[in-house]
Amino acid sequence: MPETRVEMARIDVSTFSLKHTFESAQPLTFYADYSEASNTITYPFKGSVINIMHTGGAEKGALTVLGRDREKAVAEVKKRFRLDDDLPKIYKRIGTDLHIKRAIASYRGMRLTLNDPWETTLTFIISQFNNVKRIRLITKKIVERYGATVFDSAGKPIAKEFPESRALAGAAEKDLQSLGSGFRAKYIRDAAEYCTNNLDLYKLPAAKYDKLKESLMSINGVGEKVADCIILMGYGNLKAFPIDVHVKREMEKLYFKGRKKKLREIQEFAERKWANSRGYAQQYLFHNARLGGG
DNA sequence: ACCCAGGCGGGCG
DNA sequence: CGCCCGCATGGG
Questions:
Q1: Please, what is the average pLDDT of chain A?
Q2: Of all nucleotides in the shown strands, which has a C1' nearest the CA of A180?
Q3: Measured between alpha carbons, how far is A72 from A45 in angstroms, rounded to an integer?
Q4: Is residue A260's beta carbon less than 7 angstroms from any atom in nucleic acid strand C?
Q5: DSSP class per residue in A54-100
Q6: Is the CB of A130 less than 7 A from some atom of nucleic acid strand B?
Q7: A64 beta carbon < 7 A from strand C?
Q8: Contact call for residues A265 and A273 (beta carbons, < 8 A)
Q9: Is the C-beta of residue A127 closer than 7 Å to nucleic acid chain B?
Q10: What is the rounded average pLDDT of the residues A246-256?
């Protein structure tokens, strides 16, 4: 066995909070391990494990990255945490009123993440009619049960990878159900089979919002909201504005005098207000509504 | 005990 | 079309 050692890299970051990002209920955060004490996140990556420690403050700080291959690890971290996003500039664009400015102030440095499309599809199928704690629980169980084992340089198993759709395509519904997925078991199995045999998620262009959404919604168990989550966090298209119960309530309260509004109206309002950066606005509204109590 | 959770598909009017 | 309902499960 070739000797593998762990390489280290350092990346300077500004306007970045690993804590807020981890707590913001995005695909990576459903199965990664995070330590608040050391401000460190650990997750499987291409047959190995990546470990990221964030030091310094939210304005200026640094990431210490441990991985098997220094360059690949750095590229992964930059891509995954969207480090090329100019967050102050995005804040200017979406900080159009006091409500959202307050959310930004509370969670400054929270990043959207860019996740694997299949990973995003599966986790957000699990998310429907569910809560974050249980999404984590179910996702971790599926990774543990169906993911390929990751070994360290001594040949010792240290983690499981996120399972590809192929690994789940043949899964029995009752096995998936026994992991706590409940009525979503059929959706998970159908989606895994469909994305393995009929729809190549890796060939869908991220920029074509309408076409992408139509393709994703052809998956059983994927509707408007889940499709928007996949477009936003699996393809990185900021035109997606997923409206879940929190965002709906929050926007009705903040922008519609507490009146019930249809999804269409909220959708159009967001598009007018935040244009092509609305995906970021959504993440701050969601996080603030979920944790900040509105 | 009751209510809710990052909704969806199916059925009905 | 739009609306309404049931849905598994665990935590508050």
A1: 97
A2: C9
A3: 10
A4: no
A5: EEE-SSEEEEEEEESSHHHHHHHHHHHTTTTS-HHHHHHHH--SHHH
A6: yes
A7: no
A8: no
A9: yes
A10: 98
Phi/psi at A2 (5° precision): -65, 145
- How far, in Å, CA of A281 to CA of A201, rounded? 26
Domains delineated in chain A: 7-106 (3.30.310.20), 117-234 (1.10.340.30), 245-290 (1.10.1670)
Residues (178-197, chain A) with CB within 7 Å of strand B atoms: 183
CA dist A66 and A7 (Å) reads: 6
Q: What percent of chain A has pLDDT over 70?
A: 98
> pLDDT by residue (tens digit) across A6-42?
999 999 999 999 999 999 999 999 999 999 999 999 9
Instruction: Extract the tokens encoding A90.
Output: 């995005």
Kindly report the bases of strand B lying within 7 A of a protein C-beta atom.
4-9
> Integer distance in angstroms from CA A219 to C1' B11?
20
Confidence at residue A153, expressed as pLDDT on a 0 to 100 scale: 86
- In tens, the pLDDT along A151-185 reads 998 999 999 999 999 999 999 999 999 999 999 99
